User: Which sequence fits this backbone?
């Protein structure tokens, strides 16, 4: 062709070309406005959905403050000491029942001054039932924070045993239950406490006055008289008092926050990391450095005379109460197994059926149609319904999940396999048939070599994608890590466990994605994926 | 060739000995064939071992054992057999039931969603519409962001390996992140309802459509791009006028395929707190409402068939008979 750049076209040339290819020059309105119309339709539909789901209202009502806390919980944990200020000026330090610092915390970021004090103990109307509850509850308590009741972190059942006024000022665990008249005891109590929440943030607690310091700013809060809480001077923006005279909230950024009320100070100090990831607070190995633990395992005296330290340590790790490593890993393995077995069976069953469904292999329209409709049926009954069906049949667990994957994917793989068979090159088959091969040999040497890589590659793809979907059907009871994830999320307390499981799932998915991709590109040879 | 003919001192079938070179070739071939067979048998053995181990493990950790539970195989339908087949019909269309005793089990007409004084949509149709809207909206959101991201991830349009790699990793992360966690997180913030489901399904769709899209873009014909580059078009003009027209039909048919998947996904997410038909299904199963459950299952089945058929028809119109094979 002659180069057009050097030859400017005359008007007649242009007309000539236009006459030859009228469709190029005709400006059809549909073609022209297609894209803007589609975009307009999408926008209109989005507006409709906005009102259909009431998205605006939901977003407005959303609790965005909590979102930040929940996200922070993924990678950090809070330690929650509560300082209770008694009417007589004594300060009691309470820890939640399952504090990450164990049963006897003495963190270096809390410093206290104590004094002995003569106190009048309140009357106690506790019933024998309350005694039992009190005793078990007190065993979790700090020995030097005498006479504390189960904190709010305790279960509601044990909490409901308590009369509200019995929650404070109890004696030690030993004599807690005795119904006693008001008596005077001499106790050692805290008179002043200083909590360092992160670098440069201080909370100084005295019975009538709390001083908050964040960096260079400092603000004093006066407690009392009565139930009054007053902030002295100007309130910086990190201190909030929603209603005058009521509790004051102070924020120290990521490091934590504090809630100051007339009867106490609740401190939330946040630390980065996953607490007690290896040993929980009940383990004898808890709080020891890696070297110490190793020393104990290698040459230490037996902690439990029944078994070696190594098996004790291993057992403590597996049954860690906070992280439940063994359970999580078992559930993860269940998920993997569900995807693997489900896909493998689906492939094995779909393989012969696809030959019956392909119209160029089996020359019977009835058989073709029966098989194809069968595949459609398996596919269209959603995996969710199959999962529910098999959960009833086999009970919750991986059997239900793998059967659901098996049934759904037999349909999907069968359809894809039949399509692949219908698209094969007929020449190879003709060649094999022309030398007088048996029908089985025709399939084996004329058809199979063409489709086997495709079949395997598709099965691998579904194996990988099922590893992902197995997570989700687990949540309806079909086994695997899904239910565990869902339970961890429902309490809104265990986001760090969620993060742990998410990381495990991501690792597995990426690993299998890699394996499946590598195998597939080898199977498909030089062909581009 | 059978094993009997594979003796080391190669002789052809009719007894004429091979030349030295021929024997070498044959021996070499035989070694390779033997190794290949060994690999096949070994691979199958490993697969069988893994399979039996998996089956044992699954059976061991299941609540009921496989053979013990086989007699209960059809429990789902036995437990959920309504007392009268017409009940399914009544539950589906919210018609009053003759067995109505004021309990939740037979209060079908209470679910009606009235549009006018006398015209109503039955409850489950409305819920199904909700699920469909979740699926369509999240496919649209996923399409939009996948479309915007895919060009940045393609090798033929972006030379900067860092940028490309970052976008690809981001898409992989979005794809692999468990949907149920995203849904659960937003349920905690936004309360139970369809919006967490929309967010979860959309995020997943961005990742998976983005991946399919950039693979299409990488296979696009680059000559139009070259032409536009020659006349000095900038990057956006080249993408919009040279690449987009080529890939648009493929994009749309992938989006339709994704829509089919998303209808199923939003049903499942619904069952774990995302609203729509999935939630009603879970509730009615856990409360043991037979007719309601079967009505929902029927409706779900018909909807999925309809969506699949519609999408297949539209895809055929858009890209002809081009097969969509996963895993190519």
Assistant:
């Amino acid at each position: 062709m002659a180069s057009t750049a050097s030859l400017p076209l005359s008007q007649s040339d242009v007309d000539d070309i236009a006459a030859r290819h009228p469709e190029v020059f005709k400006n059809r309105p549909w073609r022209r406005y297609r894209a803007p119309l589609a975009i307009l339709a999408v926008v209109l539909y989005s507006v409709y959905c906005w009102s259909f789901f009431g998205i605006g209202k939901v977003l407005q009502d959303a609790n965005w403050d909590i979102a930040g806390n929940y996200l922070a919980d993924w990678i950090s944990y809070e330690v929650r000491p509560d300082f209770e200020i008694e009417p007589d000026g004594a300060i009691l330090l309470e820890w939640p029942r399952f504090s990450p610092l164990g049963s006897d915390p003495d963190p270096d970021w809390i410093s206290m001054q104590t004094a002995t004090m003569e106190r009048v103990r309140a009357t106690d109307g506790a019933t024998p039932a309350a005694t039992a509850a009190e005793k078990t509850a007190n065993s979790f308590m700090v020995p030097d924070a005498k006479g504390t009741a189960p904190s709010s972190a305790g279960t509601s059942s044990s909490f409901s045993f308590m009369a509200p006024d019995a929650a404070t000022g109890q004696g030690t665990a030993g004599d807690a239950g005795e119904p006693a008249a008001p008596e005077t005891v001499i106790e050692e109590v805290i008179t002043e406490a200083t909590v360092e929440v992160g670098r440069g943030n201080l909370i100084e607690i005295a019975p009538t006055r709390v001083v908050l310091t964040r960096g260079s700013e400092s603000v004093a809060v006066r407690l009392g008289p009565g139930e009054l809480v007053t902030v002295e001077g100007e309130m910086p923006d990190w201190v909030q008092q929603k209603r005058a005279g009521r509790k004051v909230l102070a924020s120290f950024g990521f490091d934590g926050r504090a809630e100051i009320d007339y009867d106490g100070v609740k401190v939330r100090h946040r630390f980065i990391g996953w607490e007690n990831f290896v040993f929980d607070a009940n383990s004898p190995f808890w709080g020891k450095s890696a070297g110490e633990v190793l020393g104990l395992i290698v040459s230490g005296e037996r902690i439990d005379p029944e078994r070696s330290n190594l098996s004790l340590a291993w057992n403590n790790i597996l049954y860690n109460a906070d992280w439940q490593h063994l359970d999580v890993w078992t559930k993860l393995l269940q998920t993997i197994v569900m995807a693997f077995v489900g896909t493998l069976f689906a492939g094995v069953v779909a393989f012969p059926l696809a030959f019956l469904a392909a119209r160029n292999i089996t020359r019977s329209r009835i058989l073709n149609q029966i098989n194809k409709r069968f595949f459609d049926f398996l596919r269209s009954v959603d995996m969710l319904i199959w999962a529910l069906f098999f959960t009833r049949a086999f009970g919750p667990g991986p059997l239900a999940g793998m059967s659901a994957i098996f049934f759904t994917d037999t349909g999907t793989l069968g359809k894809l396999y039949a399509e692949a068979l219908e698209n094969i090159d007929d020449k190879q088959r003709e060649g094999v048939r022309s030398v007088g091969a048996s029908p089985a040999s025709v399939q084996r040497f004329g058809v199979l070599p063409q489709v086997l890589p495709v079949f395997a590659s598709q099965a691998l793809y579904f194996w990988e994608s099922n590893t992902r979907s197995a997570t989700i059907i687990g949540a309806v009871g079909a086994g695997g890590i899904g239910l565990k994830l869902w339970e961890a999320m429902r309490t809104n307390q265990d986001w760090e466990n969620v993060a742990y499981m998410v990381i495990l799932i991501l690792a597995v998915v990426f690993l299998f994605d890699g394996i499946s991709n590598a195998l597939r590109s080898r199977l498909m040879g030089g062909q581009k994926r | 060739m059978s094993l009997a003919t594979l003796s080391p001192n190669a002789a052809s079938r009719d007894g004429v000995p091979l030349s030295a070179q021929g024997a070498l070739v044959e021996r070499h071939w035989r070694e390779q064939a033997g190794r290949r067979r060994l690999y096949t048998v070994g691979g199958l053995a490993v697969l069988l071992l893994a399979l039996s181990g998996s089956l044992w493990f699954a059976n061991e950790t299941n609540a009921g054992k496989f053979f013990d539970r086989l007699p209960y195989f059809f429990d789902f339908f036995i437990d959920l057999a309504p007392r009268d087949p017409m009940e399914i019909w009544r539950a589906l269309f919210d018609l009053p039931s003759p067995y109505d005793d004021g309990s939740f089990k037979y209060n079908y007409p209470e679910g009606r969603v009235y549009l006018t004084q006398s015209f109503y949509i039955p409850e489950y149709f409305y819920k199904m519409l909700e699920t469909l809207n979740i699926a369509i909206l999240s496919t649209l959101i996923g399409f939009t962001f996948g479309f915007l991201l895919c060009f940045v991830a393609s090798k033929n349009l972006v030379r900067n390996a860092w940028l490309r790699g970052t976008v690809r990793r981001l898409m992989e992360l979005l794809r692999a992140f468990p949907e149920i966690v995203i849904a659960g997180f937003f349920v905690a913030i936004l309360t139970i309802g369809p919006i967490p489901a929309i967010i979860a399904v959309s995020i997943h769709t961005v990742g998976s459509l983005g991946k399919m899209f950039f693979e299409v873009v990488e296979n696009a014909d680059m000559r139009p791009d070259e032409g536009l580059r020659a006349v000095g078009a900038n990057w956006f003009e080249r993408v919009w006028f040279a690449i987009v027209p080529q890939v648009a039909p493929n994009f749309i048919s992938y989006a339709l395929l994704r829509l089919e998947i998303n209808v199923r996904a939003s049903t499942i997410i619904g069952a774990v707190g995302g609203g729509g038909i999935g939630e009603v299904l879970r509730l009615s199963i856990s409360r043991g409402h037979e007719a309601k459950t079967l009505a929902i299952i029927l409706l779900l089945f018909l909807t999925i068939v309809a969506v699949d058929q519609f999408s297949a028809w539209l895809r055929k119109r858009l890209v002809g008979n081009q097969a969509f094979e996963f895993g190519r």
The mean pLDDT of chain A is 80.
